[in-house]
Structures
1.
Amino acid sequence: MKLSIKNKFTEENPADPVAENTRRQVENAAYSYVLPKKTANPKVLHVSLEMATELSISAKETTSEFFQDMVTGNQIYPNTKPYAMCYAGHQFGNWAGQLGDGRAINLFEVEHQDKNWKVQLKGAGETPYSRTADGLAVLRSSVREYLCSEAMFHLGVPTTRALSLSLSGDAVLRDMLYDGHPAYEKGAIVSRVAPSFLRFGSFEIFTARGDTKNLKGLVDYTIKHHFPQLGEASKENYIQFFKEVTERTLEMIIHWQRVGFVHGVMNTDNMSILGLTIDFGPYGWLEGFDFGWTPNTTDNQHKRYRYGNQPNIGLWNLYQLANALYPIIEEVAPLEAVLHQYKIDFESKSLNMMRAKLGLFTEDPADLNLIQNLEDTLQLTETDMTLFFRNLSRFTSETPGLKLIEAAFYDLENLSKEVTTRWNLWFVTYEERLQKETLSQEERIQKMNAVNPKYVLRNYMSQMAIDAADEGDYALIDELFQLLKNPYSEQPEKEKWFAKRPEWARDKVGCSRLSCSS
Ligand code: AMP
Ligand code: MG
């Protein structure tokens, strides 16, 4: 295996001078060199061959012992120096101070076909940022991160990617439900990949410490390599940089809303500076359409990170980033103008995204009303988001709408009169509205199917793959991986995954709600 290694991040940013792997506050540095922990019995369970190809690694090479050792931290690629990144963050609305890669270790940077990728292991052992935890990850959360990041990519949602999923062979102690019953679980390591793993918190940490020099250095580095179109460093281009991050963040969140993805932990340390979905923890997919839903049990009380609040939290996080960038901009008004624009853009982008989901490709002043009415109606009774939108494309004046979306209701037998009346009324308005469109039904179906996925990674699906993998059967991981490569295609032979969450999964741990334990 021959990789084109680059070390731009480590060469151009300040390293922690302390070489020891001890837990501590790391100042004046963007990262610390640290080696992954060797594992007892590494075993690669799955590889994303698309991602391997992007890195110039062949399918054959991914079956080698060297690859297995490399993606589990047991061998270091020649002439590379792994490192953990230093960052801080706001967690659940509060300043949390230094966090950093507590269990992520960056292996190297690869350049291939004009793209630069950072390859990182998650769950490869302690770093100076591990605080009170062990630096490890368990199989269940690793399966979830591995499958979801590749699924998001194929859905067209900006995301970090995954290269491989492996067992470490070590046992890891976790109190999964945080109820005082810790138990050993299988340890696992995901190798994940992104053009950059910098987070809002990577910038916040310098500002919090009054370290404007390193803040400026990191911003200049980020602009140079990731926003080169902005040109030379200047106050004006720092504002433009903030504007770009704002736009990318909004773009990402609109995609989340479109596919029904709920991140679950939108802390500023989990917000990528490139607007990528990052850190797949207690995330979930909407089954019943519900603005109030969050998969994260740790967020039960305030539901800060609920589906309907994601756009607001994106903005809240951007305020924290604005504060972090202030020392090199020193003007409030332009930052506020950018933040204000986010709200305006959110309204229009969100409206257009919903129009596309409904197959409306012209604009009508009454659309907002039609959409709000739909969202209210969807929430009257538990109605599956994915099934609803996918089936809606087949609506015509000859098909009674309610019949078409029957499969989406979780309790079809007990639909109240009120609910059926509301739906019938909505379909009347929808039918009238569709008449103003110019596309043929066939074209409309095609366009709607390109934005309304047929297959998403429902929590119970991951959980089934996890339960089987725990028993040593990895076939379902591959089945879901292949299914989710084409989430918008019909794939009639895989129709069983185009279904509501089964009732057995409603309250099963891992299938509906998750804690942060991972
Ligand atoms: P998360 O909520 O997973 O984004 O993690 C928040 C912070 O805790 C990050 O700094 C992580 O690196 C760190 N962290 C989470 N789990 C562990 C672990 N098992 N060992 C060490 N650090 C961890
Ligand atoms: Mg994180």
2.
Amino acid sequence: MKFFVDTADVNAISDLAATGLIDGVTTNPSLIAKSGRNFFEVIADICSIVPGPVSAEVAATDHETMLAEGRKLATIAANVCVKVPLTIDGLKTCKALSDEGTKVNVTLCFSPAQALLAAKAGATFISPFVGRLDDIGQDGMDLISDTVQIYRNYEHIQTEVLVASIRSVPHLVESARLGADVATLPPDVIKKLFNHPLTDKGLAAFLKDWEATGQSILG
Ligand code: E4P
């Protein structure tokens, strides 16, 4: 399973990239606004830190302008993945950009039917949002289960299921159990993946016992 970081915070991305466990980055207009930085500069910086796909989202809602924006964003770096919303114009843009060889992430997916449409439009990634479905009283993981199953039924579908709006470690674990291709995770959730109280307790005990031996591995 690929792990993407869901942030436009370059320092957080650099720290996590140093683990060697980060395969890509997703941003959205809200995350760009939160960074307080110029869109093009921050995307260029992120692309230089992480060699994998870096999602940069269009801001227009009509096909012609979205296409022009997507083409411009794709010039920032070879690993830019243009993000478009799951609307009719967004999917027209997805089809056109995909046909030109540009990677496309279709975002704001909230139903299996939408996920199927994105695959037909040639999306590189479909981003079903689990947390926002949970927020309105639905089970976001049902959408992941349905999408993974539907895509598996058709060998020709190459679109990868990129689980978005992840809010917790169980969201990630369940996504992996269902066979989703990618998870995009906020930095704080990634950090939580490493932790377990029994790891801390066990390590403290091992270190204490090792110290009592008086030995040193490096001499
Ligand atoms: C994905 O690409 C989105 O940027 C993100 O996962 C949305 O998460 P949120 O619902 O927590 O804002």
